[in-house]
Amino acid sequence: MGTKSSVTLGLDIGGTKLKGIALKGRTQILKEISIPSRANEGPNEVRSAIKDAIKLFQEAEIPFSSIGIGCAGSVDHHRGVVRNSPNFADWKNIPLKDWVELDFNVPVSVENDAKCAVFAEWKVGAGEGHKNVVLLTLGTGIGGGLILDGRLFRGATGTAGELGHFSIHTEGLPCPCGNRGCFERYCSATAVKNQANGISPKDVFSKAGIVPEYKKIIDEFIYNFQIALVGIANVFDPEIILLGGAVTDGLSIYLEEISHHVKTHAFPAVGEKVTIKTTQFKNLSGSLGAAHLALELLQ
């Protein structure tokens, strides 16, 4: 598979699913796949899942010349190492780039999954044409990606944008990251599922109008979500805040209410400027951005 091709693979490794695309050019998606990520079984199982995913593209006879990977957690993109990932089992300094280059003999780039998502939306999606974009991915946890002054913002250690670990209640629920009251303890798919005794967030959102217990869960969700968004808007002063991930579908009917709250409670100049909307590419943002970052970094 080392032959030169204009196709890049983009993989998005989440807490439950591994999604992948074969991308030709900037926007032509030749194939999409989705398989279990096996993230709760440890790093070697995820390595096996990556092999299984890429074999699906090989079986479809799609040649590729590079692979971009987005992965939840703290990522050193220069070395392609995942330092840790709170929602993954036993991840500590995993050399993901080296592993996949060894397995498939093509150049590989590795970046945090939400950074990949914001990169895709900024390049070819809902954030195109803006210089300051914040993206939140609401899934197993909550990820964040930042475009500030027209570039992907990584911070001193590559960890900038971990907005799921922005504390909204200082004495709140304990988080696997070691902090308390993290945003994702209240507004991720996991948080909703925990409060609803294992019922899926999709069901909780869709039945909130008829099940009083679910309505209470969603009311608290919206309350906490608005606290976080006002803080995020005030800190980063973005033109647009994009919402993606599995929870966003249920959240979309509350978007007008959330936007009104943020516009009313943020600093006046910030509130007047900011727009809140859902991502254009939905669950494909991460894998599409991983492919775009691979194109930018490797070719």
Radius of gyration, in Å, reads 19 Å
Tell me the number of structural domains: 2
Give the neighbour order of strands across the main sheet: 3-2-1-4-8
CATH 2nd-level architecture of the largest domain: 2-Layer Sandwich
- Number of E-state strands: 13
State the CATH class of the largest domain.
Alpha Beta
Order of helices and strands: EEEHEEEEHEHEEEHHHHEHHHEH
State the separation between the terminal residues, measured CA to CA: 16 Å
The CATH topology of the largest domain, please? Nucleotidyltransferase, domain 5
Question: Biggest β-sheet: count, sense, barrel?
Answer: 5 strands, mixed
Judged by helices, strands and strand pairing, the structural class is: alpha/beta
* The CATH superfamily title of the largest domain: ATPase, nucleotide binding domain
Which blocks of ≥5 consecutive residues have pLDDT under 50?
none
| Average of the residue pLDDT scores | 94
CA-based shape: globular
Proportion of residues in extended strands:
15-25%
Q: Roughly how much helix do the residues carry, as a percent range?
A: 25-40%
**Structure annotation, total helices:** 11
